Amino acid sequence: MFESARLPQNMDKKTFKKLEPQLREALLAAQLPVVEKQPFSTMILVDGLDGAGKGEAVARLYGWMDARHLVCNAYGELMDEARLRPPLWRYWRDLPPKGETAIVFGSWYQTVLRDWIYKKIDEDAFDKALTRIRRFEEMLANEDVLILKFWFYLPKKEQEERLKHIEKKHAARHVLADWAALKHHKKASEAGEKIILETSKGYAPWFVIPSQDPEYRDAALAQTVANAMKLKLEDGEPHSIAAPPVVGGLKRETAVDTIDLTEKLEKSEYEELRDKYQKKLSDLSDMKSLSKTGVVLVFQGNDAAGKGGAIRRVIRPLDPRIYKVHPISAPTDEEKARPYLWRFWRRVPAKGHFAIFDRSWYERVLVERVEGYAGHDDWLRAYNEINEFEQELTDFGYIVCKFWLAISEDEQLRRFKAREDTAYKQHKITDDDWRNRLKWDQYAIAAGDMIDRTSTHYAPWTLVSSEDKRHARIKVLKTICDRLEEKL
């Protein structure tokens, strides 16, 4: 995950200066009715990598909100008083009353995170700690505590530069721990991924904030807090699970937005590479070691992005006896009567076989989210359920390859019209396709959230530019061959 957070979201100082009064107004408009009516208390957890500017962001938040009803609780190493009690005691001690807001530094996640990084606990203890935290947060939420959890993300290169700058301004002792943490950037990011994936719930969502640009970072934090408090006050639920799609008029870029749609292949080069990778795929699928693994291929993307064409190039070199293509449409009455993953568990291949999904379980967080077929809590919890499903597959030895095929709005329109004008393609275009096109931006946001929340080290997404179909087909074939070579 963190794909979108790796993208530098820049806001110039002029835009920020114009936006600042609006942010202050929005925060106070959300905070003061809560102070007056006291329907719930708010806890804002600020976590993430060292050097990401957590302190600066909180200082700005203090300046924008009514500080009389705001407290900052910072936690470091356990002191004697806390060592003699259970781990969560000091957080219970400092819970804010209804109407008040607490900002938490060094939250209940930090001790677990550092113990894991420095190998003071094993994976089993790490998982048990996350389970305990989930129970704690659920109970708080049931007792009218609004929990907002922010992970400030900074790529390693930017983190190193930021820490060098901090070192110039402070004594070496002050940054020693930070420099030590820099050495563990990869492990900290992996642990952060696990924490976010397993503990982001509707009652206690995580918000991943890209922190390369201080103005964007602070605006995103303030806007998210204001929106969540306002929504909680209106209907009891915070209806946001990611940094807002638009901050100060600037659209938040996602990993999907970064796909280079100009990539192309000439016909002669395409044919040469197609033959090369189809032969390679055929050879790999004939290996005896394939009997020790199953292969699950997932194709998602914009309507008319060429999923079917890419799948046909994949299956051409395969023995028909070892693969099955599953075109996924709206669930049947039989499927609706069961949990949504049931119909996909039924299609899991035996080892030695391929299961190819033309659309998949990800429709839960795409179509069902955007069209309202799944409630907010249902599609929100689906991210974790999907990750756990895919981890079960990979733990059993399966290879899971997931492809997002992307095209532009203009190219989609051209392909839609071509389908209408071609008799043997007319079955591919439906009224639903045209309706979905009207919600292009909503689907783009949903796709970005999906990739952020479900691109894991065991089942990563491959983002494919499909503006040129030849380029897309080669990238898909090559990726599958590479993944099979790694495993077999």
From TrEMBL:
NCBIfam families, sorted: poly_P_AMP_trns
The keyword Transferase appears for this protein: yes
Annotated GO MF terms: polyphosphate:AMP phosphotransferase activity
Chain segments annotated as transmembrane: none
Protein name: Polyphosphate:AMP phosphotransferase
Domain of life: Bacteria
Key words of the record: ATP synthesis, Transferase
Reaction catalysis annotation: [phosphate](n) + ATP = [phosphate](n+1) + ADP
Pfam families found in the cross-reference section: PPK2 (PF03976)
Residues annotated as domain Polyphosphate kinase-2-related: 12-232, 265-486
Record organism: Roseibium aggregatum
An annotated GO BP: polyphosphate metabolic process
